Amino acid sequence: MLNILDILIDPKEEAKIRFRRTQEWQRRARIFNPKQRLIGVDLDSLNQQVHDRNKKEISEKLENEHFEKEMIQNDLLAVMLEKRRKKDFRNYNEEINRYRIYNQYPQTRREFDLNDPDRLKKDKPPRMSDDDPNLSVSGIQKLDGEDLHFKEKLRQQRFEFRKNIEEQIEENKFKKNYEDNMERLFYEQFRDLNLKAMELRKCELETRRQMKKNEAEFNKRLAEDIILHQRHEKLQEEQEKLQEIFNTFYSDMLTENPGVARSSFGPHRVIPDRWKGFSKEQLNLIYDTQKRQMIDDLRKKEMEEQEMAEWDKLILHQNRCAILKERELSRQKKRTDQNLCLMNQELAREQTLRKEYLNKTVYTNPLTEDYFSQFNTTTR
């Protein structure tokens, strides 16, 4: 008779059983260890994290040192460029002052007679004769009707005024061309310096080349915008001065022209210190306008009263409808509350019956120690 214990076990099957038992012991050691299960300490992961962090700090330190060196070089280059710019600007101002000293001395200016220290010595009496050419219109030394050469003097004044304007235009053109040439030379030098600086730093600043290029283009556009703005303001100031001269020359301040009182803000507005009063036609127009406004106000007031009466009727009707609707909603709510109360009573009665059934019929077997001893015996 063959004994069952003498049967040899398959080595592969035995190895599988032994492997599963080993895995179960290891798993039980991990799971039933409260410290490792709750805290979850993984020393290998922590060491790897420390190594990665140290490596990252070293790389960041090297990168910061590289950026610091690069920033120092940029600062030195910026200081050099700033010194060069200040020097060019100082030379530019010296050229302007030199030009003013040698080409714009006080004796050549048109307004030199106002600042001449010998003006009183060269001055003449206010009025020497009726044909004195030094008599001005604002001096009121000679009024209309007294001057026999008024047209000739007026023509001469216009000629001198036109000549002065042409001289101003020529001077402004010369000054503008000179400033444009100086600015062009300055920006050409500045551009050459930037190009040389970019060539010197090309090997070290390859990663930031595009950013520096965009910054240079932005600065160039900003400088051009500032120059255009300054030119526009200068041109506008010259135009305002020229317009003021024309307005003063052709003004009607000393005349009795009623058009002087008209304001530039609209035909219905006047200048108070020049106004001579309303005309008869204007007064009649004002009275007629006032009458039409009174009639329109009365008509508007009647329409508003009718509209308010209609609104009162509409509001009264809406209030009545709202009261009826509120009463209907109150009745519906009362019926809903009654139905809900009945439903809650029915649910309470059913829950009471179910609780009595569970306590008296279902939960009748008490728990023993065998029930609690079967937990935490295996990891599965």
Explain this structure.
By secondary structure, the protein is mostly helical. It has nine helices and no strands. It has helices spanning 11-31, 34-39, 43-103, 112-115, 119-122, 150-200, 209-249, 280-362, 369-373. Helix 3 (43-103) runs antiparallel to helix 6. The two termini are 40 Å apart. The model is unreliable at 1-6 (pLDDT under 50).
Any key phrases for this structure?
single chain, 380 residues, mainly alpha, flat
Determine the oligomeric state from the structure: single chain
- The counted number of beta strands is 0
Instruction: Give the fraction of residues assigned to helices.
Output: over 70%
Along the chain, the helix and strand elements come as HHHHHHHHH
Question: What is the overall shape?
Answer: flat
Task: Please report the number of helical segments.
Answer: 9
Largest sheet: none
Distance between the termini: 40 Å
- Low-pLDDT residue spans: 1-6
Compute the gyration radius: what is it?
52 Å
Global structural class:
mainly alpha
In round numbers, the mean pLDDT is 80
Strand content: under 5%
